Amino acid sequence: MNIPQSSYPRVVIIGGGFGGIALAKKLSKKDVQVVLLDKHNYHNFQPLLYQVSTGGLEPDSIAYPIRKVLQGYPNFFFRLAKVTSVDTMAREVKTNIGEITYDYLVVAAGSETNFFGNKNIETKGMAMKSIPQSLNLRSLILENFEQALLTDDLHERDALMNFVIVGGGPTGVELAGALAEIKKGILPKDYPDLDTRRAQINLVQGGDRILPAMSEVASAKAERFLEELGVNVWKNIRVMDYDGNYVTTDTKTIFETATLVWAAGVQAVGIKGLDAKEFLCRGNRLRVNRFHQVEGFTEIFAIGDVAQMESEDFPYGHPMMAQPAIQQGRSLGENLVRLVEGLPMKPFVYKDKGSMATVGRNKAVVDMKRVKFQGVFAWFVWMFVHLYFLIGFRNRVVVFINWVYNYIRFDREARLIIRPYKKQNQELKNQLNRGS
Ligand SMILES: Cc1cc2nc3c(=O)[nH]c(=O)nc-3n(C[C@H](O)[C@H](O)[C@H](O)COP(=O)(O)OP(=O)(O)OC[C@H]3O[C@@H](n4cnc5c(N)ncnc54)[C@H](O)[C@@H]3O)c2cc1C
């Protein structure tokens, strides 16, 4: 990997997400050599992925070059590398571009979509965990409408304009709300020769309320907001399968749709070599102690979505959200410095700053420790918080301008099919057919 040897201890970080970047920033001016490995050369601001999928934001505005975050720090090295395994005996990380040894290893690889073993949903449904996936979804939504214009088959047309979003957490709610706004404000203008009133947005939730991690008042209000926007909210229904045309459930309800979006679960990214039963918890997370040390190791740490720090308040670890990842990254940064200096580490204490979700224009729900509120003010708070945590001044300006423009014009101008999704898939299928 061409990383120079140094007299400083080497900290290898796997993942430049919220946790990895917060940690690297804390260590950047300290007496350690930091090597950050990520399979992408950018940080992905996942909370705004749904806006990319629905043409509200350009993908570049929610991505930020990892190299730029830590420019000018002589002890910091970034390598574009996909980590394949860890040899804990040899203290070595193996990647697609070579190996690197570590003194301290931090796993901050985040999470991936969990399809719970359903291959049909995995291959025929859409996930929204990365920027390329969001662009695929954007293309698919728009291609569906283009195709709906061309067919005389009413049945097929309805299926092309029928959207099923599985999972009533913030991702599902935000996506459903955005699609409903497109249906209301944009489709009738873009497709005057198509009866877009027939488009249906279905949000399917296995439990008895949406946003189950938030307060009951937030759930109820978000549901009302969605219904006002025309979203069909289905509760207590579990999606069982999808064959590319029909979604079957554990009830008699069947949806016919050309688009199923799976937002019903995530699991920690698994790293070979760090998969022993003793420390692997539910959802693939690595069990860590209060100092983020993976059980059984003193030199291997885990933070963010990948880590499960069990406590009385959080028996299954902290929520898989940006705040815990950022706070853990900062805390571990301080602790690693203390460790190197021979000082005792300080246990991590999570400061819960609350949670929020937006449903659409002027519609959001915010739960804070002492106060819960919904509506216009919540929506402004949601926007402010997202702008604040977005990395990069330019990104903040671009997102802000986009939001103001979209608000004033009731528009989402990034509804572009830059990389056709269906066509690409068709070509792949053709190639496979030719090969077989
Ligand atoms: C659609 C969506 C919406 C969300 N909305 C919110 C929200 O509103 N509020 C909120 O708090 N949270 C939200 N989250 C969750 C939040 O984004 C995550 O909890 C947070 O990103 C976790 O941070 P992390 O540092 O653990 O991992 P991540 O930020 O996911 O970073 C992991 C990094 O590891 C890299 N990586 C993974 N595997 C490898 C490998 N093998 N080799 C090299 N690099 C690797 C990835 O490329 C990535 O850069 C949302 C998530 C999604 C998907």
Structural overview:
Keywords: FAD, Flavoprotein, Membrane, NAD, Oxidoreductase, Transit peptide, Transmembrane, Transmembrane helix. The protein is of the alpha/beta class and 436 residues long. The protein folds into two domains: 10-39 and 81-113 and 267-340, FAD/NAD(P)-binding domain (3-Layer(bba) Sandwich), CATH 3.50.50; 119-264 and 361-423, FAD/NAD(P)-binding domain, CATH 3.50.50.100. The chain contains 13 helices and 24 strands. The chain has helices at 18-27, 49-53, 66-69, 119-124, 131-150, 154-160, 170-185, 187-190, 216-228, 322-340, 376-389, 393-409, 421-435; strands at residues 10-14, 33-38, 42-44, 63-65, 76-80, 83-87, 92-95, 98-101, 104-107, 111-113, 162-166, 200-204, 232-234, 239-242, 246-249, 254-256, 259-262, 266-268, 286-288, 300-302, 307-309, 355-360, 363-367, 372-374. The strands form eight sheets. A five-stranded parallel sheet has the order 5-2-1-9-20, covered by helices on one side. A four-stranded parallel sheet has the order 13-12-11-17. Strands 6-7-8 form a three-stranded antiparallel sheet, with no helix packed on it. A hairpin with a 4-residue loop joins strand 23 (363-367) and strand 24. The longest helix is centred in the N-terminal third of the chain and has 20 residues, at 131-150. It is globular, with a radius of gyration of 23 Å. Flavin-adenine dinucleotide binds next to helix 1, strand 2, helix 2, helix 7 and helix 10.
